[in-house]
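Changelog-adjacent note: as of this version, every example in the card shows the full chain rather than a window. The one below runs 635 residues end to end.
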Amino acid sequence: MIWKNPFLIRQAEKIDTVDSFLQMFSAEALTFLNEQSFNTIQFIRSSPGAGKTTVFKAMQPNVLSALQSEIEYTKDFFNIAAKNRLIEGGEVKLLSCIISCAKNYDLIDEIYRNGRRQQLLFALLNVRIVVLMLKSILVIINKQDIDSLDTITFRDYPEECTPILDKPLNGYELYNWAQLEERKICRYLDAFSDEPIKELSLPYTTLFFAKLFEPHNILFNKKTFLHHSLIIFDDMQKLTKHQRVLLIKTLFTMRPNLGVWIGERLEALSESEIINSDATIGREYGEPINLEKYWQSKGKNNYKKILQNIADRRTKLYSDDVGKFENCLENNIDYKKYEEKLQNIIQSIKHKIEEDSSFGKKYLNLFNHIEDAYTNNYKKALAYMVLDISYKRDILNGQLFFWENSFAKEKYEEFYKEHKNVAVYYLSIRAKLPYYYGFDIVKNISSYNIEQFLAFSGVIFEQYVAKSIVRSKGKHNLRISPAEQEQCIKQTAMQKYNEILRKFKYGKNIQNLFNNLSHKFQQTRDKGTNPYAGGAATGIAITKNNLKELTKSQYKVLEKIISDCISSNYFDKRIITHSGQEWIVLYYNRWLCVYYNLPLSYGGWIRETISNLNLFLQLEESENEQNNLPIKTSV
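Full-length structure tokens:
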């Protein structure tokens, strides 16, 4: 048991022990692995919080060495590792290291403007690969003293090492050399150091030391002992554009016989590359993995299984007594609290239809059927809400019915099944019932981002923890009610909305864009006719031809904003063909749907143009009001 809320520990690097990491980690996140993953150059991209760094940490020898088939929380991970020959016979067979590119390498390009900047970049990366890989070897051979590296030798040294090393070195000698070399390079870069640098040459023009750590080339007591080697470059977006392109070209030119994973946020790409899916760097070398898109391709059910695993693991880490995260949630609404509102809605719909001598006649025969079929006011209100959808459609289409009993019960029942879920949404808006509650809703709101899931589930679990502390002396229902869940979820969505101003240069423009789009989405909802999947539009579609307008100078800010929204997972980009044209559809991240009281379904989008979107960047909510365009909140 841990005392703090385990859902609030969101970044893998902040989990202090291997055992804690394994207790929180879901092996389902590694389903994209195969043996080829450790013998190729693989781009792994995502928006912040999709689980990229967590996957990288799982590949480290100290984590792999802790796997046991008998332990419940490592069993699945053990099986995946064994299948891919990362462990074998109780020994770790994958040598790996993580090179963080968030180490101010970009400053090298700011200080130097000649070939020296390339030499310094490769010099630091080479010596750090050596140091980190040798440290990982110590873990694999189960030694702690650096002296033990004298049992490590190499079959061959790359030819490029000749100008640097006088003779082949064993692991211990190489480690000491690399540490000394790194200190020399750092002193050279340190503008505040007056110490002279002696015997520092920089013949580094490539990542040749990576070749040294190919698995067949490393010997322990004169024997090979590894199946795979893997070098992970994390946060590649932190490099300058020049450094990133140089490093990628170098790696593909070298093609070392080991795995190289390039982890980067989508922001590493240019605005054009982010928006236009056909222009992705690295495509010619194999399809990059975008983690959010990968989870989507695996199917909603598989992704939900991952989230359930993560939530249950963290719940158990807090207390075994709770069992599963779902046990913290109450899924039944006490409709007695809403009796008056529900009754008013029923009477309002009935009165409206009864007073309409043209359109209303079609539905009068169903009143008695609904009154007899349902005694519960909520179910009765839901049935009338379904009826209201059909009635409003008739008015919209101008279809007049001059005969009674034209809507047969059987036909109504079919219509009810088809539109019930949307009626639940419409009724929740109109009667102010909780709508965003339950474990499935929390999963849907995550929008295929694990950190986002932890943010929403963590706030709810915090509420549960608070209740359990306050009521620990008596027997009380500790479950979080639907209303409390929705309050937590909406509070978190509001925090995310407010963060936009802090996170982005054009944060206010982004908020303006969302406010104006949401006004149009709410208009589709407020028709009450279920015109789109889920009851309202939650996305926009732009033709590929119109998208080319973004290259014009007057739309540069809009291009940047759309790019930022995609790379930050505010927009879920999809490519479709409709009416003989290619469209880019940008769906809202589901937390935006929560913020604007929109449904969580996909499929509903409205057509937009670049010129309109550009106008929305500047149009404030007050200007909407001046134009008589208030954002509605009722059906």
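Structural remarks: The two ends are 46 Å apart (CA to CA).
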